[in-house]
């Protein structure tokens, strides 16, 4: 019950099931953005999720403590991280169109062998993860997951054996734990006009606790 109480620094904060974002208050679980990223050994959460629209992050980092999390757009469509309640100023027609297609979104589930992503929406999602490909490849492939299908997006055992991938886009990002990128509806990479995920309308960055 103490977890659900508003903090003194942010009296209007809400529990993680109705995350609204758009402020500098504490993220769910009482962690600020800097604390979430700088304390990877904290076992209170197994990953954090950031929601992006093109090159702009929307809302705060979402700390995940439960073994399963639904990420969706409208409140009636799940109980977890509601993207529709985040404050976004993006007026792009493409972004708004993709937002409307997120629907039931995805489900992240932590299993013994790794983290699985289930596509609950009516449109494909696209995933990039170092543990899905050959670590010796020059760039990591982007994997398309159709509605109703799932994929093991992250393998803990394999991740620990990997060195930093030789990937241009990845090298431009800060290395904070293990990261998986997920785009709704639109793909990116070698087979698409969008070369980088930052060009995708709506996407997620999932940062795993690496200890």
From TrEMBL:
The keyword Cytoplasm does not apply. Keywords: Transcription, Transcription regulation. Residues 46-211 form the MH2 domain. PROSITE patterns: MH2 (PS51076). Gene3D superfamilies: 2.60.200.10. The keyword Transcription regulation applies. One of its GO terms (molecular function) is I-SMAD binding. Residues 1-23 are annotated as: Disordered. One of its GO terms (cellular component) is ciliary basal body. It holds the Pfam family MH2. Residues 14-23 have a biased composition (Polar residues). SMART domains: DWB. This is SMAD family member 7.
């Amino acid at each position: 019950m103490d977890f659900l109480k508003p903090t003194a620094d942010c009296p209007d904060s809400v529990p993680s099931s109705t995350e609204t974002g758009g402020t500098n208050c504490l993220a769910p679980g009482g962690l600020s953005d800097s604390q979430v990223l700088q304390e990877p050994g904290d076992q209170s959460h197994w990953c954090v999720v950031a929601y992006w629209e093109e090159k702009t992050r929307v809302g705060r980092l979402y700390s995940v403590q439960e073994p399963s999390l639904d990420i969706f757009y409208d409140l009636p469509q799940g109980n977890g991280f509601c993207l529709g309640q985040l404050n976004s100023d993006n007026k792009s027609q493409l972004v708004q169109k993709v937002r409307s297609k997120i629907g039931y979104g995805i489900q992240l589930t932590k299993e013994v062998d790794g983290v699985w992503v289930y596509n609950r929406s009516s449109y494909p999602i696209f995933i990039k993860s170092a543990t899905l490909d050959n670590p010796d490849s020059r760039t990591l492939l982007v994997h398309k997951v159709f509605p109703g299908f799932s994929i093991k997006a992250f393998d803990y055992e394999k991740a620990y054996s990997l060195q930093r991938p030789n990937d241009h886009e990845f090298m431009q990002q800060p290395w904070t734990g293990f990261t998986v990128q997920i785009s709704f509806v639109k793909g990116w990479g070698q087979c698409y006009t969008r070369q980088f995920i930052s060009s995708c309308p709506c996407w997620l960055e999932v940062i795993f606790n690496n200890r």
